[in-house]
Amino acid sequence: MDFFELLSYIGPALGGIVGGGTFMHYRARAKQEKNTAKKGEFEILQQQIEFQGTLITNFQNDSLLKDDRIMKLEKEKEEIKYLQGKHDRKLSGIQKLLTKEVGHKKYAERHICLNVECNLRKPALGEFHTEDPELINL
């Protein structure tokens, strides 16, 4: 077996090994690039999940703030209703007092003479008595 014949056997075998190695290299490289792409997709998905978590947290915080605000407004509403009722009672009391005062004035204008030396006064000075018990205390 001479050198060239040996080379004729070894050459194709080496070519096959080198070619196979090249093919394996390109295959490994493609797989690595595919893994890099999947890693990038995974990082993007992770970022989206973190962003959604942040959105959910913000939404929950906003919801709690709104609930607190609603409770505060309901409490203020109850206080306002209480004050409104209190003012309504005061106004009705004032209205009754004014109605009585107007009634007393009308009654006094019809029955009481303010002129001390009046001879036409009926009843005479110091003898006036009313039927209304509230007028007695005035």
What's the helix and strand layout?
Elements (H helix, E strand, L loop, with lengths): L2 H109 L21 H4 L2
Report the biggest beta sheet as strand number plus sense, adding barrel if it closes.
none
- Figure out the total of helices: 2
Query: What proportion of the residues form beta strands (DSSP E)?
Result: under 5%
Low confidence ranges:
none
What is the rounded Rg? 53 Å
Oligomer: single chain
Q: Brief description of this entry?
A:
This protein has 138 residues and is mainly alpha-helical. The chain has helices spanning 3-111, 133-136. It has one domain (3-136).
Structure overview:
The chain is mainly α. It has one domain. It has two helices and no strands. The longest helix is centred in the middle third of the chain and has 109 residues, at 3-111. It is rod-shaped. It starts with a helix and ends with a helix. The mean pLDDT is 78.
